[in-house]
């Protein structure tokens, strides 16, 4: 398997481009689409258009714009996705079972889907499913426009800050993502606390922000971070913890009290068991 991995060490970013095909041109093409970048260097697109959000469960959801379909952390089994359009892009944020499930991944993976995963997830995926895959660390850029798909994805940090939570999500293992498509910039937090990299985000149209203890952060911390980076819309998600559901109504109140221009959109993330 190791012979099939092309390892690119670009500054602090290591990008692994996987292919189970023997076509060397495919591997080279994938390498050219992975670049290093920083959040500050990402340029906002100005054209705004509709993106459909479909929550599946907890951390799993689907984004659609025209013929582009993006699956985020698909878990829960094939049945949840049997009536959905097949994915153009699959984004996996971390190794935990509420973000990556191999059987579900197998069921949604197609010949045309192009996943982005952290390297610690990539090593859990069998070789026959590694085609068209990018395994990237934080601060990478994957440009799908060279394939005719109008999507650019940036991997950004996600990690814990509290001393008693560092074992859950160490810095550098998992990825949050910024996705540019449909004329918008969409931020997907993954499992994180209110880290400086989140607070420093710019020009975010839609933000999906987690809030659950003990694994991520409180609603107060999430609201504080949102008030710093000022997305146009924010979707509280991933809000079930060991003591039940976080108070997303309180999150909405805190955000709107601090900035009435930020639209807080609450969807039903737990309709599926």
Automatic annotation (TrEMBL):
Keywords from the UniProt entry: Hydrolase
Gene3D superfamilies, per database record: Ribonuclease Z/Hydroxyacylglutathione hydrolase-like (3.60.15.10)
PANTHER family, per the entry: METALLO-BETA-LACTAMASE DOMAIN-CONTAINING PROTEIN, UPF0173 METAL-DEPENDENT HYDROLASE MJ1163-RELATED
Pfam families the UniProt entry points to: Lactamase_B_3
Record-linked InterPro entries: RibonucZ/Hydroxyglut_hydro (IPR036866), UPF0173_UPF0282_UlaG_hydrolase (IPR050114)
The keyword Iron is assigned to this record: no
Protein name (database record): MBL fold metallo-hydrolase
GO molecular function, one term: hydrolase activity
SUPFAM superfamilies in the cross-refs: Metallo-hydrolase/oxidoreductase
